């Protein structure tokens, strides 16, 4: 989403000089950034260890507006802004922080720093209602806006998948980390019994990769669960699947889910914070209490008659690129 915003600003505000400062080059697809945009890379593994170099960069470049899209960066930049108050800080949050705090072993003072960043930022962008409501619990807010993530502007009308009467093909896409809840999904799948078989393909990599594969093997459901690794072209085969599953403990605003919907594939999810209940409706899927309830209901999946054309149309309308573009440009324009 960050690259999209950079390109939108460059396209719309022709007289604005844009620079992109990356803490690390890892995972960045430079080909998607407009070629004339200046990019600087610090290549520092830890965000907070980069604070001195980022402060020096801001001092030398003297930007009028700094736009940041990761919570740790937002915190660091708010600390810099306390000392150097000559720039506008627009911070975009990417997660439901109090839920993330429970999942990860953050130091005790992290929540205090997050509260500070909310106060210091001149404008805050939240991806979902859940994210905003969570931030309000931490700090009183003003100058903020909810802007949902978007899907690509050109997504072809989905091709209908030929139904296989004997197999239900499921897909999960996400980092193999504790937050994504793949362990509890695998445990629930162990207890699935029906007149047809199911196959679950999990796309992604992460620190939990080995433990998840071992769990599937130990529970004797390795024949059902396939770990496919990272595949940046997974959306080209998404219509081979009957259903997308989200098993997360919490989300920000799940990109993989809305991308899947934009190809007409229905989604089932556990009830978690982070936009799930804003995305899923009667047209495109269901929300369940937990993975056990979700898996138990898979036996009835073929009773549902999901209209893939309708799912595609709903997703590409509600989460259109043009809508997000307009909303982000309105935010930037306020401070030019």
TrEMBL record:
Keywords in alphabetical order: Transferase
GO MF annotation: an example: glycosyltransferase activity
Residue ranges of domain Glycosyl transferase family in the record: 165-291
InterPro entries given in the database record: Glyco_trans_1
Domain of life, source organism: Bacteria
Record carries keyword Transferase: yes
The UniProt record lists the keyword Calcium: no
Gene3D superfamilies: Glycogen Phosphorylase B
Gene Ontology biological process terms in this record: carbohydrate derivative metabolic process
The protein's name in its UniProt record: Putative glycosyltransferase
The organism of origin for this protein: Vibrio ezurae NBRC 102218
Taxonomic path: Bacteria, Pseudomonadati, Pseudomonadota, Gammaproteobacteria, Vibrionales
